[in-house]
């Protein structure tokens, strides 16, 4: 069988990696002192009894390790944004960027992964069995222990932080993060009990520079809207996990949302002067809110632990009388707890776009 030159050069690095693995003495990539754990997928996995480095295949899981044990992060999924670097140590900023299985068609650099050689690979894949199988088929031959965590919903984060605390020997630190996560869910449940369905505020999640992309009501990317007693005006099932459904200006006019939320600075800065949006109720009533993004987005992309703070922010924006929290102080508390970062009131206000 003939193999084209193009295909040959795509295939050969992977085979070289497998050959390299076969030539390394036992114990270098193998686990010498190990213990068996049950991961959050219910699988039995042998891991080192002391885990010193972790690579996560997608940003939500990397963010969790960043909050819990940043010293254990072995590599990044993408180059840090300027805004993220403000909260990162020099070590984190200079870590190799491996990539991962996230976004559309992205895969990690396996050669760099072998050089980094993490003790475990942490995986979260939201209901995507095909990608999960691909991860296992790629990484299992390389000898890395694969550990699954479950963070499909915001409610899962308390259990996930508790699991990672035990796995990474950070139980004392994880206890405080678990407590905050549970308190957030308690606040959400309390608000749910106060707001009848008929009185819930309609919300449009504007994405893209023109605000003409959004996510379906059933999408993980818009999970905070119903959790915070909002009604996502774009009622549909997500076509895929990536989201960002295109929508017409006419459809938004028909929806006429009471509130618009967006992460896009360029869109937010123009919406009140853009004639295409002037008749939308949210614009007329000045209820367009820019989602904070430091160091990671509080609402989505990636859907990380920052949504625990984002949920409190959105509850306060939608129902300030029912959830009258001081968001400057709440932001300072959260950053100190999850990011080990002390903020003065001015810095917190800037993050909140106040």
TrEMBL record:
Presence of the UniProt keyword Secreted in the record: no
Residue span(s) of domain Fe/B12 periplasmic-binding: 53-322
InterPro entries: ABC_Transporter_SBP, ABC_transptr_periplasmic_BD
Keyword Signal: no
Chain ranges passing through the membrane: 12-32
SUPFAM superfamilies found in the cross-reference section: Helical backbone' metal receptor (SSF53807)
Record protein name field: Predicted ABC transporter, iron(III) dicitrate-binding protein
Source organism: Desulfobacula toluolica (strain DSM 7467 / Tol2)
